[in-house]
């Protein structure tokens, strides 16, 4: 047991020596507990005293749940599809020609999806007669449907007008998205 303790101690010593040698930029800050005063901050710290920020965590309110989804969703012509049944209904509307539609295939973990989401939301406001269906590829029950549609990358946008698929964009190409929207739905 004594040998294990010395290994742990060596690991901590390496970690702390790395921290001591780290030089901070002026943009970084260290959060100190509200009860700490500048005199309690160790003098051997390599950070200048001006970078220390006191914060009172007891009055900070944090949301009980947090959404990792991109911002486009729920309103302004964007309909979130959560089940295979909802997806089949939306696809039948698009293929039936009842309304022009965009199918936006996305994922919570996808950076480009989060990048393009505000653009999609803006365009859905600009084209209110076009319904945008947002489909999270990781949503349960949609894997069979997605494999039939050959969705291999996100973000993927499929454009429907007059009952047929008129275009598809794979990736977060904002210029291509705006141009295609203008061509199809203006």
From TrEMBL:
Which Pfam families does the entry mention? Thioredoxin (PF00085)
Q: What is its main location?
A: cytoplasm
State the GO CC annotations.
Answer: cytoplasm
- In its UniProt entry, what is this protein called? Thioredoxin domain-containing protein
Function field: Participates in various redox reactions through the reversible oxidation of the active center dithiol to a disulfide. The H form is known to activate a number of cytosolic enzymes.
**What lineage is this protein's organism placed in?**
Eukaryota, Viridiplantae, Streptophyta, Embryophyta, Tracheophyta
User: Where would I find the Thioredoxin domain in this sequence?
Assistant: 41-186
Q: Which organism is it from?
A: Brassica cretica (Mustard)
Compartments (UniProt record): Cytoplasm
User: What keywords would UniProt list here?
Assistant: Cytoplasm, Disulfide bond, Electron transport, Redox-active center, Transport
Q: Which family does it belong to?
A: Belongs to the thioredoxin family. Plant H-type subfamily.
Q: Which PROSITE patterns match?
A: THIOREDOXIN_2
């Amino acid at each position: 047991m004594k040998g294990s303790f010395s290994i742990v101690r060596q690991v901590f010593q390496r970690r702390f020596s790395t921290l001591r040698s780290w030089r901070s930029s002026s943009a970084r800050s260290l959060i100190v507990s509200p009860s700490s005063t500048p005199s309690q901050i160790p003098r051997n710290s390599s950070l200048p005293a001006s970078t220390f920020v006191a914060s009172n965590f007891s009055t900070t309110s944090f949301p009980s749940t947090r959404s990792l989804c991109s911002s486009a969703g729920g309103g302004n012509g964007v309909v979130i599809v959560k089940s295979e049944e909802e997806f089949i209904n939306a696809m039948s509307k698009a293929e039936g020609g009842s309304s022009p539609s965009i199918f936006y295939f996305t994922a919570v973990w996808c950076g480009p999806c989060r990048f393009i989401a505000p653009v999609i939301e803006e365009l859905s406001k600009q084209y209110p007669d076009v319904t945008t269906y947002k489909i999270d590829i990781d949503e349960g029950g949609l894997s069979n449907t997605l494999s039939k549609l050959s969705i291999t990358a996100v973000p993927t946008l499929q454009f429907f007008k007059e009952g047929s698929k008129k275009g598809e964009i794979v990736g977060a190409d904002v210029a291509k998205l705006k141009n295609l929207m203008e061509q199809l739905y203006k």
